[in-house]
Amino acid sequence: MYSKLQYISQGETIETQLYNIHQALDAGCNWVQMRFKNQTAQDTFTLAEAVKLLCEEYLATFIVNDDLHLAKRIAADGVHLGLTDTKIDEARAILGSTKIIGGTANTVEDIHNHVQNGCDYIGLGPFRFTATKEKLSPILGLSGYFDILQKMKKNKIEIPVYAIGGITLRDVNPLMETGIHGIAVSGIITESLEKKILIQQLNEKLYANVIV
Ligand SMILES: Cc1ncc(COP(=O)(O)OP(=O)(O)O)c(N)n1
Ligand SMILES: Cc1ncsc1CCOP(=O)(O)O
Ligand SMILES: [Mg+2]
Fold it and tell me: Does the CB atom of residue 165 touch ligand 2 within 6 A?
């Protein structure tokens, strides 16, 4: 089963990114998406190599944001692709069947297309406004998740869905009640001064109904 908590990295420099990712891993995150925007190819590659080693040390899943070819080059566990990034079916043809491919969705039609094209998980959002990302798609709110997850059920569309965008601890229970698999968060973990406690609290809520 995919982890129910994804950490999306932040930081304007290689050093800040590595610090933030290391802190998140140390505090218990076991899924990292490296998101390093508007950087040179060399710096992104340098960071990715270091993050790969860190994730291996912590036995964490390592996903590269946006850059399919970088994900392939460094043999990351997978890639996350947005609606304007490389198409999911093209990425599948390049990465093969063993790598994880995540796709962004804002509607049930996006989810349906991604499933048809061989996507492994969905990042559905934004839940609410967030300053972490520019040019947000329409905000879904709780009712948006409820509607989309109901439509998925009705149409028998099965794929793990992660809620994303401005999520806080108190959003987790109501979001999980809509039928999502988990959450992808950046700000709350990066900014937390008590990361271990926060991640424990998030995981308690995320895994509350999982029978082991
Ligand atoms: C898990 C997850 N879901 C959605 C996104 C957003 O991807 P995208 O729309 O391509 O935006 P950027 O992150 O590239 O700015 C994501 N990264 N992860
Ligand atoms: C990458 C991304 N895509 C939609 S919202 C978002 C940012 C998530 O970060 P945060 O948890 O800080 O809102
Ligand atoms: Mg993208």
Answer: yes
